[in-house]
Each structure stands twice: as structure tokens, then as C-alpha cells.
Design brief:
Elements lengths: L1 E11 L4 E4 L8 H9 L8 E6 L8 E5 L6 H14 L7 E8 L6 E7 L4 E7 L4 E9 L2 E9 L3 E7 L5 H18 L3 E8 L4 E8 L4 E4 L4 H15 L3 E7 L2 E10 L2 E22 L12
Parallel strand pairs: 2-3, 4-5, 10-11
Antiparallel strand pairs: 1-2, 1-16, 3-4, 5-6, 6-7, 7-16, 8-9, 9-10, 11-12, 12-13, 14-15, 15-16
């Protein structure tokens, strides 16, 4: 049986994102997302579902397929909504979103350029940041844990990133997915010299393990880590395989208290996708 899916495909820093406009029950999110994300289908790194929010102050609700939070998907939805209302060139607007993975309303400032939308998005603030040394796969590994209410990011400073380190990151992500119970695990390999980040995102509910081209929430976590480490406000452009995302993390005596990221979104496709609802597909590791 074929099911029709009304979708938009967006490009926030090459973190290719599919937004589903048709209404579906949450128990079908995983199967729909696995089909849409696959190489032989629409193909993307993540899928979000646009819903009506029960919070009056929010313009819409965004539910990611694995229940995780995603900053780039917030930018994508804000750009789509600006496009839908016909925002004029150089026009700007503010959109509040209700998003899975956080209880905070996400505020998106959108400005339309010729063929893209510039977005600035408020991000969840970590509940805790701590440095920890562990022994993992016969090596001493120093990492910084950036913990949120429903997800966790691990920042590991690296130089000369090689395949062995990437393999270890994959193993660590899966291990944490089994033991931590979070909706999303991010392993952020960060080079403090070049200011480059290579993000690995694992969503246990979907068994989706992807080296992303760009990661908004990971950018926010690196910004939070830098502010925590320096104990001062940080504004930093974080280079990633798909481009750069700007982060600003505010700092006061109580710690990191405000984070925003800035990036660009292009709407690259929209239309109807067809999936076989009788097939249950699983998502395995994808190297991008």
C-alpha cells in the first residue's frame, strides 16, 4: 500500500532536512522518516513533522521523527513559514516555535534574501557542563559533557581527525545511546585551532547514526563549551563540512544563560512522496 506524503526539503548548512506537512500519528514517524531519509528516496539527514501547537504563543509545533531537538530543523521550518506567507525580499519577521526535545519556546528571526533565508534562532541552554576523563577502547579520552533535559552532547577536542577516531566516536555514540536513555546523542569532534567541528548525531529511537554536514544544536553546544571554558561571552563562527554556523553564548556568574545560532536556509524542493507502509525499514550508519 502506497501512502502519499506532502513534504518540503530544506538546506540549512547542507544538513538536509525534510519537513512533512501531512498529518500522521507519532507511532508512524519512525517508518516514514526511515523511508524518506534513505538514499533511494527523497534522501536527507533528518525528518520533522509540522503540527499545530497547543501553545497559543507558538505559530506551529515541530516534532522530529525521533523526538529529538534540532536547531537546523527549526530554521528550516521558520524559513518555510516565511515563504508561505510571502515574505518580501529584505523583509524580516519573528516566529515562535514549539519543538520536540525541549520545553522552551524557540524564537526564530528570519530575513529573506534573494534565494535564501537568513535565520537567527534561540537555543536551549545546557543544564550542566562538565569535563571528564574516561578510558575507552584502550585509550584515555578527555571529553566535555554538555547535558540538556532530553539530549546530551559530548565535545572532544581533536586535531588531525582520522578514521580510527571517527570509528571510536561511532562506538561511543551507540554505547551512550544504550546506557543514557536520551532522545539524541551528539559526538562533536572539535579542532580548537581551525575552529572546525565534525558532528556525529545518533538518534536511538530511529537507530540513525549520521555524520552530519552541519549541526545547529552541536554548534550551540560548542559555543556553550567555549563560554564555560573561558568563563566569558563567546561569539564564534564554527566551520563544518557543509559550511559555517555562527554561535553566540552569553555568560554570567551562574554560567551559560543564553545561546543563539545564525545560519542560512534554502528551500530546495517540495511535493509528494510515496512510501510503502507495509515495509519497516531501519536506518544504519551513513557516511556523508
Amino acid at each position: 500500500m502506497k501512502q502519499e506524503i506532502d513534504f518540503i526539503k530544506c538546506n540549512p548548512t547542507q544538513n538536509m532536512t525534510i519537513l512533512v506537512r501531512t498529518d500522521h500519528a507519532a507511532e508512524h514517524y519512525s517508518g516514514i522518516a526511515s523511508s524518506l531519509m534513505s538514499y533511494d528516496h527523497v534522501y536527507a539527514e533528518q525528518v520533522g513533522f509540522i503540527k499545530r501547537s497547543r501553545r497559543q504563543e507558538a505559530a506551529a509545533r515541530l516534532e522530529m521523527a525521533g523526538g529529538e531537538f534540532c536547531g537546523n530543523a527549526c530554521m528550516a521550518l521558520a524559513a518555510h513559514m516565511a515563504s508561505e506567507i510571502g515574505l518580501e525580499k529584505q523583509g524580516s519577521m519573528k516566529i515562535k516555535l514549539d519543538v520536540s526535545g525541549t520545553d522552551d519556546l524557540i524564537v526564530c528571526h528570519v530575513k529573506r534574501q534573494e534565494h535564501r533565508y537568513d535565520c537567527r534562532v534561540t537555543m536551549p541552554v545546557p543544564q550542566q557542563i562538565e569535563r571528564r576523563m574516561i578510558t575507552f577502547e584502550a585509550m584515555e579520552l578527555e571529553m566535555v559533557i554538555v547535558r540538556y533535559a532530553e539530549f546530551i552532547h559530548i565535545v572532544i577536542e581533536v586535531q588531525d581527525l582520522d578514521d580510527l577516531m571517527k570509528q571510536r566516536a561511532q562506538h561511543l555514540a551507540r554505547l551512550l545511546g544504550i546506557t543514557m536513555g536520551d532522545t539524541m546523542i551528539g559526538i562533536l569532534l572539535y579542532d580548537p585551532v581551525t575552529k572546525e567541528m565534525t558532528p556525529l548525531i545518533y538518534v536511538p529511537k530511529l537507530d540513525s547514526l549520521i555524520w552530519e554536514r552541519g549541526c545547529g544544536s552541536g554548534t550551540a553546544s560548542v559555543g556553550a563549551y567555549l563560554a564555560w571554558h573561558r568563563q566569558s561571552e563567546v561569539t564564534q563562527s564554527i566551520k563544518q563540512p557543509g559550511g559555517a554556523i555562527m554561535v553566540t553564548a552569553q555568560w554570567n556568574a551562574e554560567g551559560v544563560n543564553d545561546i543563539t545560532i545564525e545560519g542560512t536556509v534554502e528551500i530546495v524542493a517540495c511535493g509528494t512522496a510515496f512510501i510503502d507502509t507495509s515495509l519497516e525499514q531501519s536506518r544504519s550508519i551513513v557516511e556523508v
